[in-house]
Every structure is written in C-alpha cells, then in structure tokens.
C-alpha cells in the first residue's frame, strides 16, 4: 500500500502556521511582511522628505515642515505613499492598503490633542507617533490575517 502525497488539507501544519478559513497562515511570512512594510515606510521618509523640502521651499511654505502638526502629517504621508505602493506590488486590495495607511495617521491624530494641550512636546509627538504606528499596523494586519500571512 503506498501513501498518497500530502495535499494542502492533509499536509502537516508547520509549527509557525495557523489556519484561517481553511488556509494556512505562516507567522514567519506574517512577520516578514510586517518588516517589509516598516522598511517601505523608512524608504518613504528618506526619499520623499527632500522632495517635500524642495517643493515647499519653492512655494515659500517651508515652514510647514517645521510645524509639528503639518510636519507629522507630511511624514505620515511619505510613509504611506511608499508602503501603499509596496503593498500594491505585493497584490493587496485597496481596502487593506487604506487600513494600513490609516495606521500611519491615527497615532499622530490622537497625539495632536495632548500636544495642543501642552501635555507633550514636539519630540514626544514624533517619538510616540512613530512607536504607536507599530501596534496600529499590527492591529490592521491581525484584522485580516489571511491578507498578510500568505504572501
């Protein structure tokens, strides 16, 4: 009697995988995808910051980069643009891309309140805004694990 080859439904599940709606989800792929998005965000900050400086300088509005509110939103935009482009290359749908993009803005928007009340300074806004993006991204990913752990 010979054994049948393992099929997706009968193959052993690796230790780093879970199932969701009958699909295997790899924790390793999930974590790698998270790291790829963080890298794309960093690229966005580095590459697009000089573009904004040039354009705003040419328009006489360079001060927008130094304003904590607009500066934070511009930085979130830089991260979102490149991360969204990378997600599209990876085959993501627009809704998850928009959800992940919101994870770039929401931490800053929440922190604008304590900034306006004088409870935090600009340094804390930038530090905590960036740190809080990471759990915000994780939440967006965990809401749709099948979207992130298969590619």
Structure, described:
The chain has 151 residues and is mostly helical. Helices cover 71% and strands 5% of the residues. It has six helices and two strands, in the order ββαααααα. It has a two-stranded antiparallel sheet with strand order 1-2. α1 crosses α3 and α4 runs antiparallel to α5. The longest helix has 32 residues. The N terminus is likely disordered.
Q: What's the total helix number?
A: 6
Morphology call: globular
Mean of residue pLDDT?
Answer: 85
Proportion of residues in extended strands: 5-15%
Q: What Rg is obtained from the alpha carbons, in whole angstroms?
A: 20 Å
Largest sheet: 2 strands, antiparallel
Unreliable residue stretches:
1-18
- Separation of the first and last Cα atoms: 36 Å
- Please provide the count of β strands: 2
Strand order across the largest sheet? 1-2
**What class, by secondary structure content?**
mainly alpha
Helix content: over 70%
Multimer state? single chain
SSE pattern? EEHHHHHH
């Amino acid at each position: 009697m010979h054994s049948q080859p393992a099929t997706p439904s009968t193959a052993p599940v690796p230790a780093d995988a879970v199932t969701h709606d009958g699909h295997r989800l790899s924790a390793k792929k999930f974590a790698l995808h998270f790291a790829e998005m963080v890298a794309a965000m960093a690229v966005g900050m580095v590459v697009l910051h000089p573009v904004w400086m040039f354009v705003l300088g040419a328009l006489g509005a360079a001060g927008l980069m130094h304003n904590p509110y607009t500066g934070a939103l511009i930085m979130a935009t830089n991260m979102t643009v490149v991360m969204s482009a990378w997600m599209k290359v990876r085959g993501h749908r627009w809704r998850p891309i928009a959800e992940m993009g919101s994870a770039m803005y929401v931490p800053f928007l929440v922190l604008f309140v304590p900034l306006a009340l004088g409870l935090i300074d600009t340094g804390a806004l930038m530090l905590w805004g960036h740190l809080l993006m990471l759990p915000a991204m994780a939440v967006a990913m965990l809401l749709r694990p099948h979207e992130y752990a298969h590619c």
